Amino acid sequence: MNFPSRLIEEAVMAFSRFPGIGKKTALRLTLHVLRQDPAEALQLSEALRKLASDIRYCQQCHNISDADLCQICANKQRDAGLVCVVADMRDVIAIENTGQFHGVYHVLGGLIMPMDGIGPDQLKMASLEERVQSGAIREMVLAFSATQEGDTTAFYIARKLKDSGIKMSTIARGIAIGGELEYADEITLGRSIQQRIPFGY
Amino acid sequence: MNFPSRLIEEAVMAFSRFPGIGKKTALRLTLHVLRQDPAEALQLSEALRKLASDIRYCQQCHNISDADLCQICANKQRDAGLVCVVADMRDVIAIENTGQFHGVYHVLGGLIMPMDGIGPDQLKMASLEERVQSGAIREMVLAFSATQEGDTTAFYIARKLKDSGIKMSTIARGIAIGGELEYADEITLGRSIQQRIPFGY
């Protein structure tokens, strides 16, 4: 593609480095920036600059935070003894949106992926063990995606902490609410039968 | 959605103002910015800042340009008497990529859309007439999308300049190269029959 201006080219190149954004979409985004109020473009520019330079992480749970301790860890209403271990910030947002969890989190910063060179040392695993050793954790919920990596990470943590005496659980796998049986894959359906839960009056 | 940090929230809000980008995609882009090298985020930040403040337009064709005259208008190799009139910069890029046009452009900055309050006065129409009156234009190609708005704009220009003596044409409509007849819509197929071109030895 030939661009009429170096400024356009720079913006298109920068946008097209995002996952899932090709040259055409990048150009569409760039043209949108040109058409909109310059103040809005400056706002995004400023937000990105701050993301690159000012972002901080909670010293306890490693979630992104504006202070040394994130809003959740700092909240006295939350059950500090109940810790939900997740891969990244998106999972925290997803679980918070359910309104069903009243404990605190531990953000690992990823899942164990040996093929990509990501082992326990690349994740916030040592810091999780420290929290366990400090005696602050009573119960732990492992909330990982139902993938190979999620299972590997869960098994690693369960084995590592098996002598800690902490009550440990993992989020339930099964048929999604509203999901139809006939369209469920065999593995999910199989697991939801194995892990059937008591029901009835 | 509840965000763990104001910085994240600002970035997500800024991204989600783009067309076709919702909150989830905006969050995905924001997290990508966090994961990548801060230098790349700063590059995009800087590119956006420049787009908002430093962008300039060619004084002759109104295409985006780094100088008073764009690379195309300034190029002595191009046929300055042959002008292709287009709606916006994307069309210039698309036509340039074909390598089939050796004239110069006139970028209207949109199409006539009375329902959206966009009339000839909101477009670079007066400037096109000036270029015509200066006698610099010998032939004009109207290259608009095959939509109601494109047709309206083409008819407006054709009527406005009918006494100018300029040779005027519009790009051909028809079956796309590689397109199958049976899947072509009736209007396109109908037009391609009406406007059939001589063929044979």
Topology (elements, then pairings):
Two copies of one chain form a homodimer.
Chain A: H1 6-15, H2 23-35, H3 38-53, E1 56-57, E2 64-65, H4 71-74, E3 79-86, H5 89-98, E4 103-107, H6 125-133, E5 139-142, H7 148-160, E6 167-170, H8 186-194
Parallel strand pairs in A: 3-4, 3-5, 5-6
Antiparallel strand pairs in A: 1-2
Helix pairs in contact in A: 1-2
Explain how this protein is built.
2 copies of one chain form a homodimer. Chain A is built from 8 helices and 6 strands; from the N terminus they run αααββαβαβαβαβα. A 4-stranded parallel beta sheet of chain A has the order 4-3-5-6. In chain A, strands 1-2 form a two-stranded antiparallel sheet. In chain A, helix 1 (6-15) packs across helix 2 (23-35). The N and C termini of chain A lie far apart (68 Å). Helices cover 42% and strands 12% of the residues of chain A. In chain A, helix 7 links the parallel strand 5 and strand 6 (167-170). Chain A folds into 2 domains: 6-53, Helicase, Ruva Protein, domain 3, CATH 1.10.8; 57-170, Dna Topoisomerase Vi A Subunit, Chain: A, domain 2. Chain A is an alpha/beta fold. At the A-B interface, helix 1, helix 2, helix 3, strand 2 and helix 5 of A face helix 1, helix 2, helix 3, strand 2 and helix 5 of B.
